[in-house]
Amino acid sequence: MDFDVIVIGSGVVGLACAAFLSETFSTLVIERNKSFGQETSSRNSEVIHSGIYYPPETLKSKLCVEGNRSLYQWCQSHNIPHKKIGKYIVATDENEIPYLENLYKNAKSNNVDEIYFVSADEIRRDEPNVKALVGLWSPRTGIVDSHKLMESLYIEATSKNCMFAFRHNVVGIEFSGGLYKIFAQTESGEVFSTTSKFIINSAGLESDTIAQLVGLNIEELGYTLQWAKGHYFRIKPSKSHLAKHLIYPVPPKDSSFLGVHLTVELDGNLKLGPDLEYLSERKQDYSVPEQKAKVFYKSASKYLSGLELEDLLPDQAGIRPKLRTFSNYPDFIIKEETQNGFPGFINLIGIESPGLTCCLEIGKLVKYLLLEK
Ligand SMILES: Cc1cc2nc3c(=O)[nH]c(=O)nc-3n(C[C@H](O)[C@H](O)[C@H](O)COP(=O)(O)OP(=O)(O)OC[C@H]3O[C@@H](n4cnc5c(N)ncnc54)[C@H](O)[C@@H]3O)c2cc1C
Fold first, then answer.
1. Which listed site, 88, 213, 253, 291, has its alpha carbon 20 to 30 Å from 188?
2. Is the pLDDT reported for residue 254 higher than 70?
């Protein structure tokens, strides 16, 4: 056996797994890109969520509430740029108020201790450009420099018992005699193999493909992903005075995203997004069509005054690894696969938002699952 554990993928979740696992196990991380965090982990809103939206008792709610605390602590102890700036969720129409009431109850069921109803006047005093009838205030929501966070996890892992193999694309996995043999291809087409007792599938957008490679029936198990793109528009710096907190609308009905929201970046600049567009083919196309600006402008103008269409400039896009299910809030799949014939193989599938917030807690949970084995 070459390693105790092989982690496939070095996004923020794979890195967090490597940081915790390498305290105890010899660990190899295999990553197809030239460095860590080149995909979804560097294409998101960088928001530290507080755990108010997700149904109680789900992995998303539990890992997010705990992850919020642990991520702030990690940022402080590792000097990661972050700000606990807080967020308003605003109702701009009477019909939206029941949603906020339910959200408040949901947050309380999830043990989010700091969540408050705020009146239109209170919001106006704090955010004069925000239009609202009433809102929820979540002071524990914040923003983080996701690249610096990933760098700190990478340093943590490499300072322990962990090696990284970048530019290696995992193309095959065999299981026999209690060991996994992984085949990884380099850019020049050479294929190398290495063995381990445990595998962590943290391959993000390709986590279902990796589960299939080992021999799992992903359709039957409900592991199949559908990619859903989210575009962003940045707001001209001359308008960065329009808001100082994160501003979220009430999400569109029957939708599995939070609505086009306003994000403040660490430098104070503002960004709108993401929207939600299901992709019919699996292609990492991160372009942002300029004509989408009108829809973003219309959505944001409902809750923000002082914005002009010309203030919006195409920014980045990210792709969500969404599980193909009818549920609006499908939970993360974090599963050790003994039951399906693959002991020591842990799948992390459907790790969409709030995966960044939960990364440390996912890493700890994965280590716990392996120590149980
Ligand atoms: C638009 C958008 C906004 C979001 N906003 C937030 C937010 O504000 N707050 C929050 O908490 N979360 C947010 N998220 C979610 C968060 O970004 C993700 O949950 C998190 O980044 C997932 O990390 P990961 O490591 O699982 O995946 P990834 O970052 O995708 O990493 C997976 C890695 O696996 C590698 N890989 C894949 N296949 C192979 C292979 N065959 N061989 C080798 N390597 C492979 C990839 O190259 C990649 O580096 C958002 C997501 C999106 C898309």
1. 213
2. no
Residues having CB within 6 Å of any atom of ligand 1: 8-14, 30-33, 38-41, 44-47, 49, 169-170, 202-206, 230, 274, 318-320, 351-357
Kindly report the protein residue whose alpha carbon is nearest to atom 13 of ligand 1. 353
pLDDT recorded at residue 337: 98
* Percentage of the chain exceeding pLDDT 70: 99
Specify the ligand 1 atom closest to the Cα of 33: 47
At residue 212, does pLDDT exceed 70? yes
pLDDT of residue 255: 67
Ligand 1, pocket-test mutation among 8, 41, 170, 284, most atoms within 8 A of CB = 41
Mutate to test the pocket of ligand 1, among 69, 349, 356, 359 (most ligand atoms within 8 A of CB): 356
Output b/e per residue, 194-215; b: 16+ Cβ within 10 A: bebbbbbbbbbbbbbbbbbbbe
Distance 334 CA to ligand 1 centre (A): 15
CA distances from 251 to 71, 73, 122, 159, 299 (A): 26, 30, 22, 43, 11
| Ligand 1 nearest atom to the CA of residue 348, by list position | 26
User: Of 40, 145, 348, which is best to mutate to test ligand 1, by the most ligand atoms within 8 angstroms of its C-beta?
Assistant: 40
- In total, the chain counts a number of residues equal to 373
Tell how strand 246-249 and strand 87-91 pair up: parallel
Element at 98 (helix H, strand E): helix 97-109
- The helix (run of H) or strand (run of E) holding residue 174 is strand 169-176
User: 168 near 184, Cβ under 8 Å?
Assistant: yes
Whole-prediction pTM: 0.97
Phi/psi of residue 152, nearest 5 degrees: -65, -35
Of 3.20.20.70, 3.50.50.60, 3.10.129.10, 3.40.50.720, the CATH number of 3-44+147-224+329-372 is: 3.50.50.60
The structure tokens listed for 222 are 């409900």
Query: Out of 3.40.50.720, 1.20.900.10, 2.40.110.10, 3.30.9.10, which CATH number does the structure's domain 87-139+225-323 have?
Result: 3.30.9.10
Residue nearest to atom 37 of ligand 1 (CA): 203
Nearest to 138 by CA among 89, 69, 102: 89
